[in-house]
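Suppose a colleague, Dr. K., hands you the sequence of a protein chain of 488 amino acids and asks what its three-dimensional shape might be. Before reaching for any lab equipment, you can write down a predicted structure in token form. Begin with the sequence itself:
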Amino acid sequence: MFFDLKTRCLGVAIAFVTICPMAHAELDTLSGTIETRFGPVELELGVPTKESIDKLYDELDFASAYLAYVWAMPAVNQAGYIYSWRDFFGAEWGQPVALPSSQDRRGTLTPTTTATYVMVMVDLSETGPFVFEDVKGNHAGIITDLWHRLLAEVGNPGPFRGEGGKTLIVGPGQTNPGDTEGFHVIESATNNVFIGTRLLDDDKDQAVRELGPRFRGYPYSERTNPPDMPLILAGDRVWTQNPPTGLAYFERLSEILQNEPVAERDRFMMAKLRSLGIEVGKLFNPDKRQERILTEAAQLGELTLRAATARRRGTTPYWEGTQWKELFVYPPSQREEHFDHFEERALLYWEIFGIGIQSTGPGTGSKYTVTHWDENGDLLDGSKSYRLHIPADVPTALFWSVVAYDEGTRTFIDGTDNTMIGSQEPKYEVNSDGSVDVYFGPEAPAEKVNNWIETKPGRAWFSYFRFFGPTEPFWDKTWRLPEFEPLD
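The predicted structure, expressed as tokens, is then:
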């Protein structure tokens, strides 16, 4: 029933020579060239030559840098806020910054035009355990760690259900102070923490005036005499959350890692980063070889995430036969039973500014769908005109919106004011059957200006359709969103 090893090797020598002991012995003495995916490798007595050894190490380190770019994206994304709060807004840890206008929000990734955001940053390594005052009022938001993992919700969906209260955030390696009666206590695995909320009242100006200044945070040690921290309005500052490009991406990553504990799940990645000049406790000072590898890896990493957001793999269209896909496809913890998400979280935080709490059933939370393509499978082109026919009775308990974003910057299309149409601001025309036709293109269609979203020639764009409080027809898919119809 069984062949002996010698017979098997002779019988399959042509097809499977490398599985046989004799074949391995022959390879051990092989000299010559082996073609690989990154070019020829020269061997001498079975050992790569000195030149080929350098080439193989370059390939290994490039692969490490390439993966590190993707792995680090959520943290570098949030660092965009950390640096902006420090450099552009001059905010102290715990000081609230409000982004009330569309212009203010152009620095964030894929923001909405109707929401007013108020955000707070904190570095727990500097403040120690930290108190956030969640004010009473109509708002909803989140607290996340550096990697955008959810720590808690605030406002209406939070532990105080919109009635206001104090959350105590305890950082890595810090001791719970013990005297925490009346506090909602959470622990963060990272020192840097993001707190952001969306004001929901229809009168945005009033909400900013009345609620905005009451958001604040301060060290627990100062709880009996909290510092005065006035609300900062973003105003006309030009800022961006976008990650830096090229070598600067890894410079920022190195700076971030110096201030954070190494998670158990990331120890292998930290080992790979050592070969690239990035190590906790050491100044980032790459040699020319490392600079070249890191710069090339950053370029390929960015291209990969641009590709991954445009054509999300591993997920199917939400409505069969369309190219609309759900934006959030993993739990807020980023963790599944046997793995933590990697590629999915990177492409998400290449494109958005913070986690969105998704609906778990009819009438709750929100659902976001996204597409980069028209009904013919062609990329949405800013020089062309399109129509999106939105059927009547959009299945939302609250409101809906459709927005166009620039493919390159992932924020509002530069130089345009008409970026969104939605039911919170019903200035658009409605068809006799209750449906709505929205037009996209560089020029407004005749007599349809109120239903027009402007795009720019020479720039690709993509769209989010948001459902706030999605109702049963969304879930059972009896209501269906069509694709973009080219009009040119």
